[in-house]
Amino acid sequence: PIAGSMVLAAVLLKLGGYGIIRMTPTNISTILIYPMIAMATWGIIMTGLTCLRKTDLKALIAYSSVGHMGLVASATLIQTPWSTSGAMILMIAHGLTSSMLFCLANMLYERTNTRMLIAMRGMHKAMPLMTSYWLIASLTNLALPPTINLIGEIQIMTTLFNWSPLTIMMTAMGAAITAIYTLQMFMTTQQGHMTKDSKEIYPAQTRELLIMILHALPILLLTLNLELIY
Length: 230
Known about the structure:
Blueprint: H1 2-23, H2 30-52, H3 57-78, H4 81-112, H5 123-126, H6 128-141, H7 148-163, H8 167-190, H9 206-224
Helix pairs in contact: 1-3, 1-4, 2-3, 2-8, 3-4, 3-7, 3-8, 4-6, 4-7, 4-9, 6-8, 7-8
């Protein structure tokens, strides 16, 4: 159910990251850190490449969440103040963004009865107001400046680079792939000609717009004043 996906992305994944922060000892052996961070950073690329070929919208958003949490996991293992701060910021930003994307995907599913990207094209013509929320969610997911997603990712990338310069190849490639599949998702669902089965799509309801506002407003407020997190 979409409500379960929203709770999973916004709360349960963050409980896992918080548990890693609290339970990882400060004097953890480097023998354990190297393979775990290698798997986490490699997972960012692998999930991104998987998203590039996904045709299921909900599965695409879910794999995107896994990629972002790979950054969080690698940052929390280093156990420096800068990495922990970046992980906290990215977890909060990702919780809002991913939950918003799951809700938007469910709105399209309720109207088209399918989760295939090819069957959802041209939604801008049927739901022009929701396109603005799709744009906000997509741009924050790919960490557009000056959103808090970018701040968290930059802090994590800087920490990983100071820990090992080789990690910049993995994180930079992951960020580029994220931008590609996020823009592809936005363009596929919003642009193009509508299918014959999508002609009778009803516009967004008030409760749906309220849910979107409750996601977009915290993102905007945290972007304008990051000290609210601390």
